[in-house]
Design a protein that fits this description.
mainly beta; two-stranded antiparallel sheet; 17% strand
Length: 71
């Protein structure tokens, strides 16, 4: 059986989050469908979502082959 897939959510407002790989600020605009669990976890205000907030589930976020840069 396959791992649970996070349910996508559609944003009702623009939100500011950090890119999970690059760790740089990004803006997700109204109407954007969010499927990345790392981004879903960052959006904590339930009023940002159309309907119920999606659950990130246990699916793993995609990883990059690039190494993180020190702060």
């Amino acid at each position: 059986m396959s791992a649970p897939v996070p349910s996508p959510g559609v944003l009702t407002t623009a939100v500011h989050v950090l890119d999970p790989v690059e760790r740089v600020p990004i803006v997700l605009l109204t109407g954007t469908t969010v499927t990345d669990p790392a981004l879903i976890e960052q959006i904590t205000n339930p009023r940002c979502w159309e309907g119920d907030p999606p659950t990130p589930g246990t699916a793993r976020a995609t990883t990059s082959a690039r190494k993180a840069q020190p702060a």
